[in-house]
UniProtKB/TrEMBL annotation:
SUPFAM superfamilies: Metallo-hydrolase/oxidoreductase. InterPro entries: MBL_superfamily_lactonases (IPR051013), Metallo-B-lactamas (IPR001279), RibonucZ/Hydroxyglut_hydro (IPR036866). Residues 61-266 form the Metallo-beta-lactamase domain. Signal peptide: none annotated. It comes from Teichococcus wenyumeiae. Belongs to the metallo-beta-lactamase superfamily. PANTHER family: QUORUM-QUENCHING LACTONASE YTNP-RELATED, QUORUM-QUENCHING LACTONASE YTNP-RELATED-RELATED. It holds the Pfam family Lactamase_B. CDD domains: OPHC2-like_MBL-fold. This is MBL fold metallo-hydrolase. One of its GO terms (molecular function) is metal ion binding. Gene3D superfamilies: Ribonuclease Z/Hydroxyacylglutathione hydrolase-like (3.60.15.10). The keyword Disulfide bond does not apply.
């Protein structure tokens, strides 16, 4: 008998948006407690996950996205890094499987600086793991993580006080190549879409080429089986919970009305989907797998 596989094939999925090649690169998935969900009882959350055939306490995937076009390469978010969860931190092995050296990445676009998105910026020794990349984020995101008063509030509310020290360490080797924006085009074919609430500078990115557009919506949802039908459900780590819920509803309205293709950091890999209205709510429709590019 031939040797049986002991691991999955690399977590990669490629999709063209016009002349831009977008690649979903899996970093793995998160494991956590339903207690992180807000505005829903534990029993309701467990029931909804069970009905959706989703294991608990598993949360969504951790996805990152390569954007390649015009001879340039951007990476949107960097995943959990090597030490956060055993089932995450797979970004670099999947980049290698895609034939991409981290030194080739010239731009890193951050949706925000929570550690499941930013821990892949640096190694255990504090060095930049993307040695030639400019780090790009919303001006309000940097202001939040650099603000001692924000760290104090996070310690009081349980919203992730240790994350401030981690963010400082991750930012350190990129400070001399840091670019901030408020909106507009931030990379050829990529336009920033501020979606505040989860963090003050939380952003999505619209990728457009030719007559095709994709919205990478960042952390609009973390647990799609719950937050798509119940957009009022937030996460413990939402800095402004009411604003995060309002932003989620606004993005859902836009995506459904405009029939946009979306991708998300915590939608199940590879993370591409459409959203449709369903009664008074919404339903997420995963895009069919396409073997052609």
């Amino acid at each position: 008998m031939a040797h049986l596989p002991e691991a999955q094939v690399p977590g990669l999925y490629h999709r063209r948006i016009g002349t831009i090649l977008l690649s979903a690169v899996s970093d793995g998935f998160l494991r956590g407690s339903n207690a992180a969900l807000q505005n829903i009882s534990g029993d309701d959350a467990a029931r909804m996950l069970t009905e959706a055939f989703r294991p608990t306490p598993r949360c969504g995937s951790v996805n990152t996205f390569l954007v390649r076009g015009g001879g340039r390469t951007a990476l949107i978010d960097t995943g959990c890094g090597p030490s956060m969860f055993a089932m995450a931190g797979k970004l670099f092995q999947n980049l290698a499987a895609a034939g991409v050296d981290p030194a080739e990445v010239d731009t890193i676009l951050m949706t925000h600086l929570h550690p499941d998105h930013s821990s892949g910026l640096t190694g255990a020794d504090g060095r930049a793991l993307f040695p030639n990349a400019e780090l790009v984020m919303h001006v309000d995101e940097l202001a939040y993580w650099d603000d001692p008063a924000s760290a104090t509030r996070a310690a009081e509310t349980g919203q992730g006080f240790p994350y401030f020290a981690e963010a400082k360490e991750q930012l350190a080797p990129y400070r001399q190549r840091l670019r901030l924006f408020e909106g507009g085009e931030v990379f050829p074919g990529v336009t920033a879409m501020p979606f505040p609430g989860h963090t003050p500078g939380h952003c999505g990115y619209a990728i457009a080429s030719g007559d095709e557009t994709l919205l990478i919506w960042g952390d609009i949802v973390h647990v799609p089986e719950i937050q798509v039908p119940r957009p009022e459900v937030g996460m413990q780590f939402d800095v402004e919970p009411e604003q995060a819920a309002d932003t989620r509803r606004r993005v859902f309205d836009m995506v459904a009305a405009d029939r946009l293709l979306v991708a998300g950091m915590h939608l199940h890999f590879p993370g591409f989907a459409h959203m449709a209205r369903h009664g008074d709510g919404y339903v997420l429709v995963p895009e069919a797998w396409n073997v052609a590019l």
